[in-house]
Specification:
7-stranded mixed sheet, 6 helices, alpha+beta, 7 strands
């Protein structure tokens, strides 16, 4: 089950989160950072985060994970089913398709290309571990240009802008046929695909 295991290649490792008090404290601290509070809108207290992690873990349709890079805490990821999410109405999803939310929790690890490398490996892992999956989706805040460029460089094409209950989001999708090989270089022309907007300094979230 996705909620129990995410077999990422090295140097990444994923640990499922179940909603302990310590996990709630970590998420509360991380999501209280200004750059994540602006894009995730979930600067919640420890108790609420523990409840949310338990809910996600017990849903069995996805799961919350702590991602490490060479043993260092790097990111928080939620894997989910688009068909049962806020983006269900915007694409004809299959019941097997997957999506993810990403927050790089260690700001010192941003701006080094690690976000693109991680998303590329995550997308390949989701397809590899789930043969029925046809598409992988992500929907970062539309204002988060850094995260949107990460998605594009990792092979997740922008589809449309959508209004969700808590944000205006850029919907990015990668079909199985479009997944980049592990050795693929960064794709050119990413800036143009975002309308030539200036590079943002906000970390991927």
């Amino acid at each position: 089950m996705i909620a129990d295991r995410l077999d990422l290649p090295t140097p990444w490792a994923a640990r499922p989160l179940s909603g302990t008090a310590e996990e709630g404290r970590l998420l509360s601290r991380w999501m209280g950072q200004e750059y994540l509070a602006e894009t995730w809108h979930q600067a919640w207290p420890q108790e609420r985060w523990s409840d949310e992690l338990r809910r996600l873990h017990e849903s069995r349709e996805g799961g919350p994970f702590l991602i490490t890079y060479e043993g260092r805490r790097f990111a928080y990821v939620e894997v989910y089913r688009p068909l049962h999410s806020d983006i269900a109405a915007f694409q004809p999803w299959s019941r097997h398709d997957l999506g993810f939310h990403l927050a790089i929790v260690d700001r010192a690890l941003t701006g080094r290309g690690l976000g693109t490398a991680f998303v590329s490996d995550l997308v390949r892992t989701l397809f590899r571990c789930s043969p029925e999956v046809e598409r992988v989706a992500a929907e970062p805040d539309v204002r988060n240009l850094a995260c949107r460029r990460v998605m594009e460089r990792a092979g997740m094409s922008w589809v449309r802008t959508v209004r969700l209950p808590h944000k205006e989001a850029a919907l990015h999708v990668c079909p199985r046929s479009g997944v980049l090989p592990a050795s693929a270089p960064e794709r050119p022309g990413v800036a143009a695909s975002l309308g030539g907007q200036p590079t943002a300094r906000r970390p991927a979230a």
